UniProtKB/TrEMBL annotation:
The keyword Coiled coil applies. This is C2H2-type domain-containing protein. InterPro entries: DUF3435 (IPR021842), Znf_C2H2_type (IPR013087). Residues 272-293 form the C2H2-type domain. It holds the Pfam family DUF3435. It comes from Photinus pyralis (Common eastern firefly). PROSITE patterns: ZINC_FINGER_C2H2_1. The keyword Repeat does not apply.
Length: 297
């Protein structure tokens, strides 16, 4: 009943039991009110380009923008004004997004009822073409976590168990960090298993960019991530993410320590796919990173 009559999450009573003078199902109501069943795929999740641009028309934003242009770049006052402007824009965006969501919440119930009375069904959720299509494991995970709410406790338990199983299955999917390698043979990995992109391919250019000619050179791409990209199909959407440049060499060093070194024990072996070389232990990887690829750890 709570699903069919728009029971809000703040309602902690069982109105159906009250009407029928039955014993309230407190456990069921607690389950229903704790999982956010009012969430919908049609609910706005972000601002459009036009809505984001509208923030710049705020008088306070205009005033700070004009004030910052008059200041000398690099000065303390310029930095302070820039921080204030950035904070103000973020605040206005949050407020605008919340207002849009609140307006949608107030209107969607009435709109749904009117559409049902007209026999045209619910409005379809908007498709975000900027989002890449999900892979099978990710799709299974999302479907399990967003499964429809059941109106029984047993159904809720099944929903919970399915979500746990989907999360466990997704743990084997590599999203970015390298997988810990503990029993890698000392022989080098065959180059035949790697892709050989053409010279005008972004992956080839990224691979060439992680080699240094002088000790003081500091590339801004991660050679281990590029090595992982070499083992993926060239049309894999994650290749683009793995070959992206970091903003500074320092950012690359942080990434290297957090995403790669932290996954290895001192005696763990690893492989540099870019060089087709087995690295015998953690220190060997660090020496290789600085001497061949200019990555400081």
């Amino acid at each position: 009943p709570f699903q069919k009559h728009y029971l809000g999450r703040i309602v902690r009573a069982d109105p159906w039991a009250v009407i029928r003078r039955q014993k309230p199902q407190h456990a069921l109501i607690d389950q229903a009110c704790s999982i956010g069943h009012s969430m919908s795929k049609r609910r706005p999740t972000g601002l459009t380009a036009e809505q984001t641009a509208s923030v710049a028309s705020d008088p306070r934003v205009r005033r700070l923008t004009t004030q910052m242009r008059k200041l000398r770049p690099g000065s303390e006052q310029h930095k302070k004004t820039h921080r204030e402007l950035r904070s103000l824009k973020q605040k206005l965006k949050r407020e605008l997004k919340q207002k849009i969501r609140d307006d949608w919440t107030d209107e969607q119930a009435v709109d749904d009822i009117e559409r049902q009375l007209q026999g045209i069904g619910f409005a379809k959720p908007l498709v975000d073409h900027a989002v890449r299509p999900r892979r099978p494991a990710q799709k299974l995970l999302v479907d399990a976590l967003t499964a429809p709410v059941d109106d029984t406790l047993d159904g809720q338990y099944r929903r919970r168990d399915d979500a746990i199983e989907a999360i466990v299955a997704y743990c084997n999917v590599e999203e970015g960090p390298t997988v810990r390698r503990t029993n890698i043979p000392s022989t080098t990995v065959s180059r035949e298993s790697l892709h050989e992109p053409s010279e005008d391919n972004p992956l080839f250019l990224a691979t060439m960019s992680v080699f240094i000619d002088k000790p003081e050179q500091r590339p801004r791409r991660c050679f281990l991530c590029i090595g992982a990209a070499l083992r993926l199909p060239l049309d894999d959407p994650s290749v683009e993410d793995k070959i992206q440049e970091f903003y500074t060499p320092g950012d690359l060093s942080k990434h290297f320590r957090r995403r790669h070194l932290s996954q290895l024990r001192d005696n763990d072996q690893s492989v540099c796919q870019v060089c087709d070389m087995t690295l015998l232990h953690k220190m060997h990887l660090q020496r290789h990173a600085i001497s061949i690829h200019g990555t400081v750890s």
